[in-house]
Every structure is written in C-alpha cells, then in structure tokens.
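Q: Predict the bound structure with S-adenosylmethionine.
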Amino acid sequence: MYCSSAATHDVGHRHVPVLRDEVMEYLRPAPGVQCVDCTLGLGGHSAALMARGATVLGIDRDPVARLLATRRLACFGDRFRLYERDPVTYADAAEDLVAQGEQVDGILADLGVSSMQLDNPRRGFSLRSPALADMRMGDGCQQTALEVIDACDEEQLADLIHRLGEERASRRVARALKRAREQGVDSAAELAAVVARAVPGRHPRHPAQRTFQALRMAINDELGQLVRLLKSLPALLHSGGRAVIIAFHSLEDRLVKRALRAYHKAGLMRLVSRSVVVATATEIATNRRSASAKLRWGVRA
Ligand SMILES: C[S@@+](CC[C@H](N)C(=O)[O-])C[C@H]1O[C@@H](n2cnc3c(N)ncnc32)[C@H](O)[C@@H]1O
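A: Predicted complex:
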C-alpha cells in the first residue's frame, strides 16, 4: 500500500530517497518486520518500508522533519511510530532502546543532511543562503556554525576544516574566516564567498563546499553520533536482523566498514557487505545526491 493523500504528495515529491531499491533489498521489509529508521527525514525510506508491510519507529533530531514525516506517514496508521524522547538523536535513541532491552529486525541510517534542510535558506546550510550560518540540524546541537568559528582559534579551525572537510587549503580558509568574522560577516553566502576567495585554483564544485561540510559535521557531532550508533547495533538487532547504513563522507564510510568487519570477525554479524554498494548511473542522473552515497549492510548472527 502506498499513501497517496495530497499531504503525502506535497512533502514526498520534493525528496527521492537515495538507494531506495537497494535499501529494500538488504532490509527485506515484510509484514511483521520491525524497523528503526534512525534518520527519518521526509520519511521516504520509511514509506517504502511500510508499503511492503513493515512497521517503523522513526527518529529524527529535526522537529520540522518529524512534523512533515509524521503527516506524510499518517496513512500507515499504527505501523508508524515516532520516537519522541529528548534529545532525539539516533545515538541517544539507540542507547535508550538497548537499555530497555528492545530488539528489532531492521535498522536504517541514511546519514547527513536532508535536501529539505539544505534547501531552506533560513537554516544557513546552503552556500547561497542569506541567513546567518547556523547549520544546526535540530535537537542536541549546542553551537551554530558562527559560534564554532568564533570559539576556535585559527589553528583549531584549520584542523577542523582539514580533518572533516579534507580541505588542503585549510589554513588559508581558517585565516580568511577569522578575519571575516572580525569584520562582522555572518551570513552563509558571504562566508562561502570568503572561503571561495581563499581557496586557490579551479574547482568542479563550489570551493566552499568542503569547508561547509566540515563545519556542519562538527556542530552536529556527526561522527560522534555514528560511532555511538555503531556500538549499539549488535545489541539492537534480533538474530538475523539487518542493518543498512548509507554514508556520504569517506570518514563516515570508513567507520561503518571497520565496525561491520569487526563485528563479523567477532561472530556478531553473520554476513556483511563485501564491498560498498553505490547508486546506478540511472539513479545518479535523476538524483545528484546519490552520486556520493556509500551503502553498507550487515546481518546479525
Ligand atoms: C539524509 S536525511 C534522511 C532522508 C530519509 N531517509 C528520507 O527518505 O526522507 C537525514 C536526516 O537525518 C537527520 N539526522 C541526522 N543526524 C541525526 C542524528 N544524529 N539523530 C537524529 N536524526 C539525525 C537529519 O535531521 C535529516 O532529517
């Protein structure tokens, strides 16, 4: 059953879930299968899981995503449940569920920022946003991107941009950002322009993309959240339960690969993906975001 209400269409049409068919293949949703969607977003993956009969507990730290996804998924009735504890991060939720002794058949994490968050100019994620560079995804995030830039000294900022953004010109970028802040520059678009001027050479993508990614990952503690989720994975899965994680950053993908391999070696996972699963050329042609998606999966022993 696919929901076809006007509300579903309204929020759903804007966002195509990445690697949807592959997620279904590895999670094997069916009636009676219980899944946790750690990154609900607009509910695209959850809708596909429930359309195949599964039940879903949805988690998202962004209150706007929770609201829109809940509306979109209302037609699935009590097969959809929203996780509503505070703060609603998937790391906290996973630890909380493990502490309560809960186990499920499927865990999905489609990491990073949603197109809905990126496209909202008021949230300051986008390189073209005239708003303050905020970049907080939602619950559990303390500092905005501006506050992080201000709190770091030049060297700390350069290290952060180098480590999380893999930006080679991180020192020049950090210097330029600190100077711009002294002059009161505070919008995302202006800061992106400052970074673009500091990064030498030609670039296939916007030259500030890597720096923005680093700031976003830092303020939302994206690697820390993933490490904690990976620790909870085996305890949260029933025997034969399946986990699927989609990463968009090489550091995230490395963490997932290492954790799954370690669990396989320790006998906690019966099967794990041998190589990374990526989007087909057809999907990439219709959904640019899928080009950098790296899916890995594992089956609990
Ligand atoms: C890429 S989107 C997911 C899209 C979703 N799979 C769909 O089909 O619509 C990632 C979502 O995860 C949420 N998110 C990211 N990190 C989170 C965390 N640590 N805890 C809870 N939600 C998180 C973001 O707020 C965002 O809405």
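A: The two ends are 31 Å apart (CA to CA).
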